[in-house]
Amino acid sequence: MQDSNSLASIPLRPANMAPPAPHYPWPAPYTSAMFLSFDVDAESAWTAKDALNAERLITMSYGGYEARVGTPKLLELLDQLDLKATFFITGWAVDAHPAMAESILKAGHEIGHHGYHHLLPDPGDPFIEYEIEKGFEAIKRRLGVVPTGYRAPSGEFTEELRQSLVRHGITYTSSFRDDVRPYRHVLATGQPGTIEIPVTASYDDWMHGLSARFSPRSIFPKEHVLSMWKDELDEVRDWGAMVTTVLHPQCSGRPMRLRLLRDFLTYAKNCQDVWIATGEQIAAHFQQHEAAEAAQKA
């Protein structure tokens, strides 16, 4: 139960002080966009919920599927479709499965930061800074990469995290669900934050296609999810906006879900007005227009 003191402490202002996203045009000839991205958590998706899961080997096997089968199959699919994507990967997954991480990089995909242990960022959590620094260290040490993009584990954010990512040189984040175009965050100090490439909630495959042993959720059939994904994309195309996927190899790398993803990405590729791009490409495009706009105002 909430008490009156805690309710009175809620700030009477929007949680996100950034203005609505600017309507920058997409690169010609495209009039809409898709940020194609994956979250590679491996077993850290399960140990983040309970460290004792490390000793629950069947639970861990859900995450282990990523390195054994899921990621290789997804890389094969992306190669067949001639698509490049961003893979947000936890530092733990890089350390535990270096060959998997190296295969993503070797295939020419962008590597993004996704924490280290996939711990949910919570206000005042002492692990926020640790997770950022250790994730950077693992990716740099194993892959020789310094990520410019970040996605929050379990899709949560705090002001402390927002400011820390700027200090660490992150260019863009992709976690918020409050717009259909990229925008720039505003920190509590009033200073500019990272570029945000908002997530499209309905494109999180975990919500539709993964049922763990103790999960009450059933798996949605392909026809339901494909219809939803096509409808969302078609409406967004009419808006001239963008969608962002949050796909997981331990989900979409399974046979039935891979077939669904193949059908959807084939459909999206045939929509010749849709720019299918990595986060790095979308952020660079935003920066270009932002700089041009600032120059005009100067």
TrEMBL record:
State the similarity comment.
Belongs to the polysaccharide deacetylase family.
Task: Give the protein's function.
Answer: Is involved in generating a small heat-stable compound (Nod), an acylated oligomer of N-acetylglucosamine, that stimulates mitosis in various plant protoplasts.
Sorted alphabetically, which Pfam families does this protein's record hold?
Polysacc_deac_1
Q: Which organism is it from?
A: Acidisoma silvae
Q: Which BP terms in the Gene Ontology apply to this protein?
A: carbohydrate metabolic process
GO MF annotation terms: hydrolase activity, acting on carbon-nitrogen (but not peptide) bonds
Q: What is the lineage of its organism?
A: Bacteria, Pseudomonadati, Pseudomonadota, Alphaproteobacteria, Acetobacterales
Q: Which domain of life is it from?
A: Bacteria
Q: What is this protein called?
A: Chitooligosaccharide deacetylase
Q: Which residues form the NodB homology domain?
A: 56-277
